[in-house]
Amino acid sequence: MIVQICVGSSCHLKGSHAIVELMKNAVEDHGLEDEVVLAGCFCTGQCTREGVTILVDEEPISGVTVDTFDEIFKKNILERLKG
Ligand code: FES
Fold this sequence. Notes:
Blueprint: E1 2-6, H1 9-13, H2 16-29, E2 37-41, E3 52-56, E4 59-64, H3 69-82
Parallel strand pairs: 1-2
Antiparallel strand pairs: 1-3, 3-4
FE2/S2 (inorganic) cluster is lined by residues 6, 8-11, 43-44, 46-47, 53.
């Protein structure tokens, strides 16, 4: 699975850096280093919404914030890897 975190200017302002850190930690905590490849990406054109946009295997997920991170990680990354 490839997870890209948008570091475009809008997402950068909304906290990409914090999301990158949360993502790295979550991947490590779940021992997913061999399964998840983390990368940055530029603006995906989804930046009008709140929060940061990430791409999970090319699928954009918007609205990632420090508050929504856990939920989004669980639903879009953990559950997909299991399924
Ligand atoms: S800057 Fe991130 S989606 Fe546009």
